[in-house]
Amino acid sequence: QQPLYQTLPGGLTALDAHQINSTPAGGPRFSLFRTDGCGDALEATYFRAANFRGRDTLATAVDGYAPIYAPAVPVDTVAANLGSSIQSFELNGRTTLGSRIQLLGGFRWVEWNESLTTVGTSTSGLFPYNETASIGCINSLYGYQIGFDSLLLTTNWLRVEGLMKGGAYYNNAVAQVTGSSQGVGPYASRLGSPHGPAFVGEVGLTGVIPLHRNLDFRFGYLGLWLESLAQPTTQYANQTFDPAQPAPKLDLTGGVVLQGVTLGLEGRW
Fold first, then answer.
1. What's the alpha-carbon Rg for the chain, to the nearest Å?
2. d(CA 252, CA 238)
3. Residue 265: partners with Cβ closer than 8 Å, 6 or more residues away
């Protein structure tokens, strides 16, 4: 858990990153396959899902909260907004082993974007003020993946496919930080750190129903796991928002798991 705001007095966690639940998001996924007479194939796939959005607010408490990065500065109200998106492109070669398994391997690029904005407001004192922080992180991962695609079940009206793949990645991560605290600001800095290795893994389970000789309906489950990321919530506690202080190092200990359902059509020609 990554604390963002603490209670006053006591220093207990009032708001952490896990409390900012994201709404579902959607996006397209396109794949092209070129298959030879032996069943071996070349695959190109692009995937994007955008506008994951989470918001949270804390009940008003006079001088009841303080941001982790400025624990001595009290505020009355707190609002947080967290957004993210992902896109990916991969180019894989597929080699058929028997009638039910294809081994795959190739290049993959994944971009994970995430931004966090928090605002703490004090209106109870003589001079009202806001504590603001905005951190945006872009992770550009480049690497090689291996895996397999298998045929788990086949009948006259349904077949079930299972997919698993993963690999090591180089992460060219950057973070843009802006904000202000009481008596300090506005503040802006850019943090960057090429880093490796990161990890990206994917699992999938798909049902396929034939609609026509050259057309199938596909539905299933997709899971993605990304590790060693720069995320706004992991940068948060290290910020000072003070131009007189050196910028902290970029923290690359974040990770994210994405899960969802897939629906689509498969055509052959």
1. 23
2. 13
3. 211, 215, 216, 217, 218
pLDDT, mean of each 10-residue run, the chain (269 residues): 90 91 91 92 96 93 91 92 97 94 97 96 83 93 97 95 96 90 72 81 98 95 96 88 80 93 94
What Cα–Cα distance (Å) separates residue 18 from each residue in 56, 85, 98, 230?
A: 10, 17, 45, 16
Q: In the numeric block, which tokens belong to residue 161? A: 């496919």
pTM assigned to the model: 0.91
What SS3 state is found at 97? strand
**Cα–Cα dist 19/95, whole Å:** 44
Rounded Cα distance between 176 and 138, Å, is 9
> Residue 192 pairs with which residues in a beta bridge?
174
Which residues on neighbouring strands pair with residue 146, listed in sequence order? Answer: 105, 166
Question: CA–CA distance from 52 to each of 44, 75, 112, 231, 253 (Å)?
Answer: 25, 28, 11, 14, 21
